[in-house]
Fold these 2 entries.
Entry 1:
Amino acid sequence: MQQEKVWFVTGGSSGFGRAFTEYALSRQYAVVAAARNLAKLSDLAGSHPDDLLVVRMDVNDRHQIEEAVRQAEQRFGRIDVLINNAGYGIVGAVEETPEEELRAQMETNFFGAVAVTRAFLPMFRRQRNGAIVNISSMGGQLSVAGFGAYSASKFALEGISEALAQEMKPFGVKVLIVEPGQFRTDLAGSAMRYMPEIDAYRETAGGTRNFARSMHGTQEGDPLKAARAIDAALRNENTPLRLQLGEDAVRAIRSHAETLLGELAVWEDPAKNTQF
């Protein structure tokens, strides 16, 4: 029997990725869960032998991406929903973040997601339907001291996603940018890198560092409910370009947008008075 939907989830072994995989299986969808550590998915693979394909994939390895796409298409014939979830975070002021760490952050969170997306675009164009879901963050709309590198990677992902949405619309393919707030995942734990501290930034980036460490395991957001909200948005005829998840994300992004509009109004006349 052909499944109603087939999801491909990167970073599928933990956090949001694990929740997305579990949710999809509970809806009788088929899932391709891509991860670096396949052992973490052995329980699900054992209990869903027909509906779950587990593939080894590091988003920084282009050969593994190509092989994962090949296996997915060979097993299920199509992919309906690609969820780019793999990634990690950095905490540190800009000066505290070495260039190699900044580049690594961009390589995984941005270039990795783009590489996976590009590998699936020919399939989506042939199908003339489907959805690409890019897991961003409320930090993809705004940034705070100490989260500059992480936000930069998510700002970049949102920028390319917005263009991609226009490019894929003629093919019937949706693009959804998801902007979660605090959810109980591994982001603030094992998926967060803390940069060497410079005392001068104790009052700015230091506060963010302390916040990130303290919130692990206490976040209010339920990843399974996030999966349900994403599925509902994709099923809706009017799928939004951006979906905020969590009261904190809605509140922060609304406040940020209002601040932006306020500054735009204050500086509108000098901004316009720049023509020859």
Entry 2:
Amino acid sequence: MALRSILIVDDEEPIRQVLTEVLGGHGYVVRAAADGEEALRELAARDYDAVVTDVRMPKMDGLSLVRAVQQVAPDATVIVMSAYGSHDLAIEAMKAGAYDYLGKPFRPDEVLLVLRKAEERERLRAENRRLRREIEASRGQSGIIAESSAMKEVLRVVGKVAPAKTTVLITGESGTGKELVARAVHELSPRNGGPFVAVNCGAIPDQLIESELFGHAKGAFTGAQSAKRGLFEEADSGTLLLDEIGDLPLQLQVSLLRVLQESEIRRVGDARSIKVDVRVLAATNRDLAQEVAQGKFREDLFYRLNVVAVKLPPLRDRPEELPLLAERFIAQHASRLGIPRKDLSSEAVALLQEWRWPGNVRELENALERALVLSEGDEIEPEALPDDVRAAHKASGPPPTPQEGDLSVKRAQRALEADLIRRALERTGGNRSRAAELLELSPRALLYKIREFGLGE
């Protein structure tokens, strides 16, 4: 979730000006207020994603403002700024609902980093809420759709490994749902009452990632005016997902290996170690074995992470799940956007089945949200789908029987599917529920295939 609109609250004009210029230069929409009362008037007039406020101000201090923001703009993320001597007040503000605080003076990149961390936290919270809804509504506990044999095997492994503290390496192309599987491992584990923390190792600059993972001591580097917990400490008693683990710098891989072996971390600039109880999951779209062979990833860390491997198949290899995923995404986005839910037309289903989905499930979800918004009728028609999906269109109707000498596995599979569905419908006298049982398909998946192959309504 992106934090785009920011309200700066500080009685010092230079601070307001610097923050407005820095944040505005990075694409944020910024307004400023000189005190808490002016800030509350702004919050009443406009919606803001985040409020960055000083803690010591005339008329209304930052602590009172934080409490007021909880009432007038409860969805806004609050970050407080504290000069030397006001850290206790900043901590009180965090207890009152602020997300984080910055010590004055601070560097521009520190402000941007705190905002990006807040954005990631909000994204994870939204994803957690979505996942929990899916878990509650799904037939199983994981909330993951698994109609293909490959995904059923993924769920089998997840169910077996979840109760243990074993490290799991989740691999697969971008967009296949690696983070969703990691969350399922956490939700199905005894640690589900603890925090689930995810970090993208490739999204944090190399010079900051050690401090982000392990924290830092006061005075560890310029600007470190107070000690700060890292993500390992935040995930204590829970689960930490190291996404894009292949992007972790080599020098940090040594430190991570030590944490995995000894269950303790050492903050940057600190001489003492801290025990942590964290289950580590890792995810990557890279071939780590090849990275090891090329000297880009430590072999000892690879084997330590790869205790249990879960490989997610791309969407193109599990076409039987596409109709169910499509139905789920359409229902979710219709509910979120407050618009009527629509079904896919048979022509649109055929287009979805033809496209290879290089962006996998994430690309499918984006395409369906777009189609839902652009559709004008009661059904989602091909015109609402992205251009590249429409370009994959083939003639509708039952797939032709492969000609002698035709060695295409894909055409043969489609022809066999259509023939089996036709025979199942004939055997059951057109009873789709019984036909679905014979074919080992869900009724909804069968309906989509009937439409796709033009086998009648």
